[in-house]
Amino acid sequence: MQTTLATRNTNRPLALATLCGAVLVAQLDTSVVNLATHPIGAYFKADVATLQWVVDAYNLVYAALLLTGGLIADLYGRRRVFIAGILVFTLASLLCAAAPDMPILIGGRALAGVGAALMIPASLSLIRVIWPDPAMRGHALGIWAACNGLSFVIGPTLGGVLIGWFGWRSIFLVVIPVGIATMALAFRALAESADRGDRAFDAAGQILGALGLGGAVFAAIMADGNAHAALIALAAACIAIVWFVVAERRRGAEALVPLGLFRIPAFRGAMLATMAMTFGMYGVLFLQPLVWQSTGGLGPIGAGLALMPMALVFVLVSPWSGALSHKVGTRFMTSGGVAIIGCGLLALAATAGLRQAGFAEIGLVLTGLGMGLATGPLLGVAVGAVPAARSGTAASLINVARMAGATMGVALLGAVFAALHGDTEGLRGAMLLGGLVQLGGAAIASRRGQG
């Protein structure tokens, strides 16, 4: 089955609406869960380290299984895997809503990560196949990326209202109607496509990759509370990553991750910039609402409304990112966008402790602007730099970079926050580190080149 089948008799507007529905399902969940960490912690009497796992269980499993999700989509059918991912994600949301304790809630979040790891790479891969023309694909990716921002407009506001009126369990129920509608549209709007070639499932690569990422994230989370366990996990992660690279090199073209992709300068630059971008953004989404609520400055609804300007800027800018990238250059858009996010985090560090939440909006608006400028072009670089037959793999890798950055951002910036005893000083230190990491990532990505 070849990729060209996906473009025959395809209603592209309906297909794009379907693929965007998957983004809304995943990102609605992420945005409302970040807002709900405080009430979840109060309900289960959980500390910050445990609450990090409510966020990171999803991020970690999602990132660890993305490679497998993309390969399965290429091998066995992108539409089939896309629909399966939505189904798993929807069932996981039901489990989270009914969770009687923290272990089951965290387990449900991990299962949601499995669903996201199947549907998001398949979604991006289908965009690469359905829109073969780079200019048209750039426009589609801009709209797809804008749905990330739209979810952050809808999610915090809706989530705040739901938490205030019905409790935190209701936030997991809100994604279910979207998931059901997206599955129904997928059967009608998407044609099946696959590119098996000479590739096969790489179990060893998947296991080693998951161990490497999982060990690194676990080490970051445990660094403040259990240094001994953190060092053991970090050592295990390093061994797994080295073994992973050796194993993938031996498999050559059949590898889970073809190492030749990283010899493409544009692809390398996109990976670096994406990791830096999400490192800071997800740290903001985890810590800023937590501080607002824990200090008594804002409740769930107020925190959701305060996050809205960042999301609105993201939504307004993203659809135009493809056209802007064509005019001013991809390197300027991607590296510049990540640098703007870094400036936003530094502004949040500078305004931490000020009583009025309005001062933080400067940093949040800059963060949203940078995300809107950079997200679509970065995705376009990643999936456009490889043949269509490898689109699932490329989509997986750029999402591995995105979620690895997000997971490490929540873990490391959360650890800094806790080490500085939380609240104002913790937020200031975490945002300062996040901003500097992003500025450094933008500089490195610019030197590597992205076209």
UniProtKB/TrEMBL annotation:
**What PROSITE patterns does this protein's entry cite?**
MFS (PS50850), SUGAR_TRANSPORT_1 (PS00216)
UniProt keyword annotation of Lyase present: no
**Per the UniProt record, which residue ranges are transmembrane?**
59-76, 81-100, 106-131, 143-165, 171-191, 203-223, 229-246, 266-287, 299-320, 332-350, 362-388, 400-420
Q: Name the Pfam families for this protein.
A: MFS_1
Q: List where in the cell it is found.
A: Membrane
Membrane topology type, per the record?
Multi-pass membrane protein
> InterPro entries, alphabetically?
MFS, MFS_dom, MFS_trans_sf, Sugar_transporter_CS
SUPFAM superfamilies listed in its UniProt record: MFS general substrate transporter
Highest taxon, organism lineage: Bacteria
Which residue range or ranges hold the Major facilitator superfamily (MFS) profile domain?
Answer: 15-451
Protein name, UniProt field: MFS transporter
Query: Can you name the source organism?
Result: Acidiphilium iwatense
Lineage, highest ranks first: Bacteria, Pseudomonadati, Pseudomonadota, Alphaproteobacteria, Acetobacterales
